[in-house]
Amino acid sequence: MTERSAAGSLRVLITGAGTGIGAAIAKDLARDGARLILTGRRPEPLDAVAAALGPATADVIVEPGDVRDYAHSEHLVQLSIERFGGLDVLVANAAITDFGPIAEADPARWDAVIGTNVLGVLYGVRAALPVMLEQGHGHVVIVASVSGRVTYVGEPAYIASKHATVAFADSLRMEVAGRGIRVSVIEPGVVETPLIHVHEAAAEILPGVTPLQPEDIARAVRYVLEQPPGVNVFEVVLRPTRQLL
Question: Could you confirm whether 152 is annotated as catalytic?
Answer without folding.
Answer: no
